[in-house]
Structure formats: C-alpha cells, structure tokens
Amino acid sequence: MSGVFSTAQPAAGPSPQFGPPPSPRWLGEPLRFDNRGRAARVTDDRHIVDEIRAVLFTEPGERVNRPEFGCALKTMIFLPNHEALAAATHTLVQAALHQWLSDRILVELVDVQNRDANLEVTVVYRRVDDGSAHRVTVGQTLGGPGQ
C-alpha cells in the first residue's frame, strides 16, 4: 500500500511581502472545488508545487499527448528501500525537474532520504521569475528493506 505526503514552505531567510497577497490565477491540481462550488484557484507558489508533484508522480507514458513527461518516481514503490535507491532517485528527480520545469524553477538541492518504508524527497528551488527560495517535501511509501 502506498501513501503520498507533501509539505511546502518558503526556504529559510527573510521574505518581505509588499502589498496585498497575490490573487490566485491557476486552477488547483488535481482539479478540486472551493467552498462556493467553483474550480479552486491557487497562487503562483502553490501552482509550482503542484507542477513539481505532477512531474514527480506522473509515469512516463501516462500522458497520451506527451508520453515522455514524468519522472517514474512511483516505480520506486516496488523496489527494495536502500541507499542505492536513494542515490538513483536523487538523479532521477533532479533530471526530471530540470527537463520539465527549468523555465519556472532553478533546483538548488534535491535531498532523498529513505526512512523505514518511506522515501522522502525534498527539493529546494528558486523561482526564475522573482528569485524567491522555496522548499517542498514529497514522500512515497515503499516496500520495506529487502522486499
């Protein structure tokens, strides 16, 4: 059985905010509804997190019109959870994010941790448009050691 979790937060350091918060302009992904029954909208920061999750959790071949899109992170669910898996995942994640989101983010750090049956991927990135630094952590429950 697999579980998916994620957290997103600005990276450490001052982040001055001037003026009112930006108005949401992107549809939430996956598509969901707000309390008024309309398609939920998200801010630029949340949209980038949604894009990162889409890249990481889409299998290549899953999208008909773009079969090369994705990262194949979900295939790691059935592999034994050990250090070699973490190293391979690090390379896989960094390459996929660079290929698909290099016009939106600059990846500064990819940290892959394997804890028990959980593979946790933390991405520290900087937005290309405004230079703000952010961190997102996504995880996947894997098979146990030696399985």
Quick tags:
about 150 residues; alpha+beta; Nuclear Transport Factor 2, Chain: A; four-stranded antiparallel β-sheet; two-stranded antiparallel sheet; 2 helices; about 30% strand
Second rung of CATH, namely the architecture: Roll
As a percent range, the share of helical residues equals: 10-25%
Mean pLDDT: 78
Number of E strands: 6
The coarse silhouette is globular
Q: Which fold name corresponds to the CATH topology?
A: Nuclear Transport Factor 2, Chain: A
Biggest sheet details: 4 strands, antiparallel
Cα-based radius of gyration, to the nearest Å: 16 Å
What does this protein look like?
The chain has 147 residues and is an alpha+beta fold. The protein has a single domain, classed as Nuclear Transport Factor 2, Chain: A, CATH 3.10.450. It has two helices and six strands. The strands form two sheets. It has a four-stranded antiparallel sheet, covered by helices on one side. It is globular. The chain starts with a strand and ends in a 6-residue tail after the last strand.
